[in-house]
Write a structure and sequence with these properties.
The protein has ten helices and 16 strands. The chain is α+β, with helices and mostly antiparallel strands. It has two domains: 2-115, Alpha-Beta Plaits; 127-355, Vaccinia Virus protein VP39 (Rossmann fold), CATH 3.40.50.150. InterPro entries: SAM-dependent_MTases_sf.
Amino acid sequence: MQVGRAKKAGWSWRIYVILTDMKLALKITPQRSTQYANMTEMLALPELLASPLSKHIQEVTATTLGGQRYLIATVDEQMLAEPQHLAILSHLGATSEAYEYFDLIGSIQGPLLRPIEPRFTPSVPLEMTETRRYKGKTNEIFTRVLFNVALFAGKYGKDYSERLRILDPLAGGGTTLFFALAYGYDAFGIEIEKHDVETTAVFVKQYLNTAHIPYKERDERGRKAGRRFQFEIGPKGQTQTLVLAHGDAREADQHLREVPGGSRMHAIVADLPYGIQHFGEISALLNQALPVWERLLLSGGTIALAWHATRIEREAMIELVERHTRLHVRNDPPYTQFTHTVDRVIKKRDILVAVAEE
């Protein structure tokens, strides 16, 4: 940036600013615990570089400002000129607030930050992803990063603002599904634990009632394939679909029969159970599940899998996906840079992303 002065009549001055480059300061999402703060910082850079913003980024460094960690990204001016880029900044999970960054303005020494207004209004409050606490729940920031990476990798990364369809075949308590709803998407979840499906349905109703969000519910209790709840959420003409199905992830196609809009998905996001620590157990699940999940993907859609990688190497997971599907595994940076420590038990967790042929 260059700063100069031009003299006007009398004693007044006009300051003019010529931008030669532009820097952004992206605040690493604050976390209460050191363990999650470390995790979030490790995820922030690869999430940013996996996003559609990467083509506008010239350089990224990490720094501390006021005791808080930031990514400082040098970008071209076109990035802030396009509203969709600002919307993506607001969608990122491992970074929260975004600012323009100045080393110097006039005679005032920086660093100086100017807030960038968010360009994202969630369809349901993001609080919905955080409110419900249950045993085994994954940190919401990681879930959001996993969700984003799945969408960024495929054909539909550029359609971020459209109404997409997301499947979590290992839905647990529904955090991934709630992120999908917040982003304006339709959400479909399958969970083998009947109790989890039923309690999630209860939570959804209680939350929507408390938040005064209109919805309609259909409880398909008598289905041979297993109990299924269907929700239409939102005001008339702007509804989103949420489906919660009790059943086996390896039979996902059966559980998505006759759902609104059909069974094809833009992205499939699954956080594999952390209790699975041996490749044989992962293999037994994915050998049968992967071909089914692949059939549910639209052309150019993506699958993103997170797993406990302490004992199961990335190469073994890649071989498994490539043996049972025709999906293209993204085994290039930044998709190879999501490995991180969770806690003393899960010393290494990783993400694998694969894309369906167009």
